Amino acid sequence: MRMHECNWMQVERYLESDDRIVLPLGSTEQHGYLSLGTDAILAERIALEAAEPLGVPVMPAMPVGLAPYFAAYPGSPSLRVTTYLRLVGDLLDSLHGQGFRRFLFVNGHGGNSPAAGLAPEWMAANPDGQVLWHDWWRGSRTWQVVQGIDPEGAHANWMENLPWTRLEGVELPEPKPLVPAEQLRASDPAGVRELLGDGSYGGRYQLPDEQVLEMWRTGVEEVRELLERGWR
Amino acid sequence: MRMHECNWMQVERYLESDDRIVLPLGSTEQHGYLSLGTDAILAERIALEAAEPLGVPVMPAMPVGLAPYFAAYPGSPSLRVTTYLRLVGDLLDSLHGQGFRRFLFVNGHGGNSPAAGLAPEWMAANPDGQVLWHDWWRGSRTWQVVQGIDPEGAHANWMENLPWTRLEGVELPEPKPLVPAEQLRASDPAGVRELLGDGSYGGRYQLPDEQVLEMWRTGVEEVRELLERGWR
Amino acid sequence: MRMHECNWMQVERYLESDDRIVLPLGSTEQHGYLSLGTDAILAERIALEAAEPLGVPVMPAMPVGLAPYFAAYPGSPSLRVTTYLRLVGDLLDSLHGQGFRRFLFVNGHGGNSPAAGLAPEWMAANPDGQVLWHDWWRGSRTWQVVQGIDPEGAHANWMENLPWTRLEGVELPEPKPLVPAEQLRASDPAGVRELLGDGSYGGRYQLPDEQVLEMWRTGVEEVRELLERGWR
Amino acid sequence: MRMHECNWMQVERYLESDDRIVLPLGSTEQHGYLSLGTDAILAERIALEAAEPLGVPVMPAMPVGLAPYFAAYPGSPSLRVTTYLRLVGDLLDSLHGQGFRRFLFVNGHGGNSPAAGLAPEWMAANPDGQVLWHDWWRGSRTWQVVQGIDPEGAHANWMENLPWTRLEGVELPEPKPLVPAEQLRASDPAGVRELLGDGSYGGRYQLPDEQVLEMWRTGVEEVRELLERGWR
Amino acid sequence: MRMHECNWMQVERYLESDDRIVLPLGSTEQHGYLSLGTDAILAERIALEAAEPLGVPVMPAMPVGLAPYFAAYPGSPSLRVTTYLRLVGDLLDSLHGQGFRRFLFVNGHGGNSPAAGLAPEWMAANPDGQVLWHDWWRGSRTWQVVQGIDPEGAHANWMENLPWTRLEGVELPEPKPLVPAEQLRASDPAGVRELLGDGSYGGRYQLPDEQVLEMWRTGVEEVRELLERGWR
Amino acid sequence: MRMHECNWMQVERYLESDDRIVLPLGSTEQHGYLSLGTDAILAERIALEAAEPLGVPVMPAMPVGLAPYFAAYPGSPSLRVTTYLRLVGDLLDSLHGQGFRRFLFVNGHGGNSPAAGLAPEWMAANPDGQVLWHDWWRGSRTWQVVQGIDPEGAHANWMENLPWTRLEGVELPEPKPLVPAEQLRASDPAGVRELLGDGSYGGRYQLPDEQVLEMWRTGVEEVRELLERGWR
């Protein structure tokens, strides 16, 4: 249930018998040849597919997050970490004040993880609330499927190349070697761009949709399971 | 040009000959019988229609803003004002660092206005940048058209009832008297709900699309004019 | 009743039968040939004249506000917007803790408006409090009088030239054309100074006191009416 | 030279040959039988008398400061410490941007002292600036005069009872024993009020003006000396 | 080289030929039967052992971090996430200003991880600096050793029970079943205490020192390798 | 009782009959020829010696504080004042939530004083808590002993030269004239270094331990008295 396809009366009615809500977290940032919106698109879509049969409302994805290391790639706006924490905290506070009690953040971007650290702080202050943070592609079963397909699944390669993130008319190059994460760790934005070039972390840029969609379906299932059984 | 339908290479190419960008600002909040996303939907759409012939990139609408007075209506998340200012400031800082120089905020929600006050502060610190803030429905010509149609155009009545904000299967009631703004000013959220009831500020809930779309077209034109000639 | 002409026992006695307070908000910033303190002087004085017959206490005007666009004119200190919001919020919090419930901000400077956006946020957190924000020169009746006198009333021209803001021994020049607001919008401080020169927005620098004082008296009346009948 | 009796052209001319400015810091808070504005009144007046023969501009006193321990006395608004630090920092930043380089804070309220700790931080970031913080009544010579008159000089007793802080028609009681500072240290606001009662720290409420004005004149001299010779 | 066993002249001499520094991050929080300081003790000691042969200075461990989920266990002070981020950022800023360029955070507490997200933001603003964040027990080789010893190594069980974290005279109970991480995720502090009881995540409370010290030696080696070869 | 030599069960037991805690505050900063950790070492040790016979728990010293004026001396990390205030406030909040009610900050560094200003603010918000701030070397009796030994006792001279702050193998120079505090006040970091040279404020670098330890014993006694009788 898209929040933006409801009016407040419908939400009020929903809250009479449920208190869950899904908040997809995205980013607008370089994804090599793929859409700048990849993380937001995937997070929102996986959340919607997972929540639909349960009737749980889903907010639109937050379109910006934390991507300072991609600052040398135009089209990668980023918030400061403290700003992002306040943003996430304010969302929890105001929705909690309106009756929601169980919050599932479906995150599409690894860089957003510091905000996961707000969950325990917020629950300490709001003991009647529950907050789950889920990086969809790192869910245990989903990650297993990824590893089964190709252990090189990574940022801006086949793992994020889905029918809804690829761009019309953009051709993809041949595979390139994976850039080791260790080299990226201590790099400033110019260094990151030097290492990544086109922005992909390497490996194959595309795999047959049937393979990638298997990962996707597992991802959807894991989000749904969390929504159903992830609470305390 | 939707930012999310580009990759970073396309944005880099764009920046070789231009430095404008449009940032639509929305809100998720009660709009009576209409979509909770009304302000985000309208801001993003009007920005896209205005920017398209110019080839200027448009970010996705920020889906939450400042709506604390609607806190008694579920489905109306809101940020604290200081959080929102930081959010807007971080967007400007990071996009400026990537080559953008002229920023047009197309705002769809009156409550977001405090962030307009950041523009001069930011330009004082970044004298090579230009920031325009535009409340689309209050543009001088658009507002004239609204007044010409019906001077009672207001929050959650016909003025925001467009084919893309109305909800399937939701019936609209008969007109009700307009609630005077003065009564709302000093009210806390419970008081606001008591005064507004269904959430609309009053007047007629719907007018024929041909009338409302005249307002819309004027709105699109005004945004486009700003993009073309609003800079210093 | 000037707060600074009371001791705490007198305020405690006042609070036994009333809970209103007036907080004038000023600025120290360029006003062309007029006093740098124009906005603070006018806000405090209009508040005092309005409150006196009602016995409501009036704080001294906050002498600084938000004026980053005048940064190229020396003598124009300015706060960051987030600082100003905290300042206004702390004033409300601490006075509320001491028994005040109805707060009227009488603002003398357009640039301070972002702080008005704090009122609904604060009332959502303090539902037993009421906060009114009033830009004295834009009160509906006062603005009508201004328009009746001369539709070019603006920053640092006749509209702010009163016996208590003009400086001894300073001569005023002949009128100059009004600078269109649109040109100022996207300008950094150096650009603002280039456009405004002496700092006035243009038009006539002075009108006969009897005319300007009519505006003033209407302004005083409007503030008093708000104090008497502006509450929910 | 009162800043509010100048226009910006006069300040610009001043800055051609000087770069000093005085910023008086006050508070609005209980002072027993004396004016709630005592600290602001004294800080501003002593600054003006000291600066006048030197032609150095003086801002109006900041009317609120840090007085949380007096929260049980109505009429004692207070800022949070972090807000106050931001306020002081913003004043320095913006005036520095307009050409001032030597800043003298003349403080009238002991509770404001945490802001003195900002001076070295600000000078580390702005090595061409100099910031002096001066608690006028604790200046070495002034304090000696106070001790010579009566070692019990303290908050809201004779030491702050000057022709410009006492209130018409308010009678003063007989002396009471001094409340030991140690008892106040660990007290919450209710405890402070229990200990202080009328708000004075004790001792004599008034001494002959000729004695108190000796303290005053020494205070003025010390401020003036700092303005003349306190810089590095 | 302990920073606190140097004076500034020795550090200045060091900086003539090197620019590395180690900042251990700890926490004071419940560790079952073990010391409340376990995370700080281990982080500081592993950093010192690793840095000693290289002559790189090591700060004392930050004794508090992020542990809000243990709030129901007395002796577990915790910072807010935004405070911790500012703390870490200020350390980087001030040490960078004094000549350090390569910073290794050796972290002893999983809950501190949100601060790792500051590293890329800080490097984007300070491109001549390098920041590495290392959770010592999760280093790839160390974790392998842990898994080899007993895959149930976890908070407050044998994995953190070393000669320098165990307390004299405190007896350890028999093993208990491991508490699944999923159950802890959505729990508030009271729920966490209900699940954990004595505070250990379960498994065996102690293993022979020779085994645990193998993990320790690997941990030391990994930190040293990072210090030697982890930079870009 | 060192907090880090307890586990949480022991603290819980302690809280059944007491609610005091000591928080030593240090700094890592230049101390001339002495240890960079002088302030942290002294604060922690004096707190431990004072608290031991009373069985009150003592946190490890906070190793960094406010020392921006020493920024030209490498090895002097410093927090921003607002960060430090948040840090101190968070410690109070979280320990208060776990049952502590009486907090004694034993401070070893004059520059940390702005945080003392948080105590009344915090007690106003937490009226069941008591916060004492004590600069150990400025305690009235300790200071008298210092004056009796040598009125030139100051930063990084004999007054801080104790067996546990002096460094092996570092020779001390002959006395030098005391640098007048007034000269330091308005100096930026480079100016401070120019004035202080080796970092000591001047006077004698060392006195016989028997003299300095008399100061120390008095310092310990004063802290203990505060712990026993300093509360309201």
What does this molecule look like?
- Six copies of one chain form a homohexamer.
- Chain A is mainly α and 232 residues long.
- Chain A contains eight helices and three strands.
- Chain A has helices spanning 8-15, 38-51, 81-97, 118-125, 140-149, 181-185, 189-196, 209-229; strands spanning 20-25, 102-107, 130-135.
- In chain A, helix 5 runs antiparallel to helix 8.
- Chains in contact: A-B, A-E, B-C, C-D, D-F, E-F.
- The B-C interface holds B 66, 68-69, 71, 78, 80-82, 85-86, 102, 111, 113-118, 120-121, 123-124, 126-127, 129-132, 182-183, 185-191, 230-232 and C 66, 68-69, 71, 78, 80-82, 85-86, 102, 111, 113-118, 120-121, 123-124, 126-127, 129-132, 182-183, 185-191, 230-232.
List keywords for this structure.
homohexamer; about 230 residues; three-stranded parallel beta sheet; 8 helices; 3 strands
Short précis:
Chain A is mainly alpha-helical.
Task: Compute the CA-based radius of gyration of chain A.
Answer: 18 Å
> How confident is the prediction overall: mean pLDDT of chain A?
98
Strand content of chain A: 5-15%
What is the distance, rounded to the nearest whole angstrom, between the alpha carbons of the first and last residues of chain A? 23 Å
User: What is the count of helical runs of chain A?
Assistant: 8
SS-based structural class of chain A? mainly alpha
What's the story with the biggest beta sheet of chain A? 3 strands, parallel
